[in-house]
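Tutorial handout. Part one gives the primary structure; part two gives the three-dimensional structure as tokens.
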Amino acid sequence: MDLAMRIGLSFLSFSALGALALSAPAFGAPNLIGQTDDGTYRTETVYSTSECSAICQAESPLCRGTITVQMDITKPEMICRLNNGKGAQPAFPSTPPTPLNRDIALADFNAYRAEVGLDPVKYSGKLNEASRLHAEDMARAGDASHSGTDGSSHGDRVQRQAYYFTIAAENVASGQKSWEKVFKAWQDSPGHNENLLRDDVTDFGVALVYDPDSAYQTYWAMLVAAPLDADTTEYLRYQGQIPPMATSGAELKSDINP
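Part two.
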């Protein structure tokens, strides 16, 4: 997204990195020389707006956008102001996501499953906790992945919550700013949709973590699973054995402005 305007003999260009799902700059009186606390953390001399944008891209996630000022349009030099989205009057403010309402998410999920004749799932506090911890881990890493920073799989993370399962499947995503957007993205992706429409799961957990200082800002983790029966779980505990794991996973990363 690039927005530009001419002001006297100056040329002013605003550019936000779309891959970071950012909002447009907050326009007011143009700040050509950077006296306002608008999040500018460094300036560079460049010869095109694309050169300025490339510097910002290379410094992601620190750089949230650029303001390019050409003080004299008869000369090629431009001032590239790299902006981190912070400050008292940020030019590129971060937009928080819509809070996750788990009741709505569960209702939407079960309505979608009902369309193809599948049984509803119910919330599991243990799956919610495993999802939350993984979403927080993805935010710290700044990426969406099924592998935890400690090398764990989603099956490992589920069993750490003392949830022993016959099947466990996971969807992850980053960048979407609402449940509606991430749920639609998962439906539109064959691998994720397969996990949504599994006929062998009974439980559900989902989490959203927002970190405005990270690359994608929002991180989603969702788990569906079916537990081992109580007798089998007790027997395995008595034997000191780790329950056998059957897992399935799919991942999605958003690099568009949701």
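Part three, for discussion. DSSP finds seven helices and ten strands in the chain. Confidence is low (pLDDT under 50) at residues 1-13, 16-33, 253-258.
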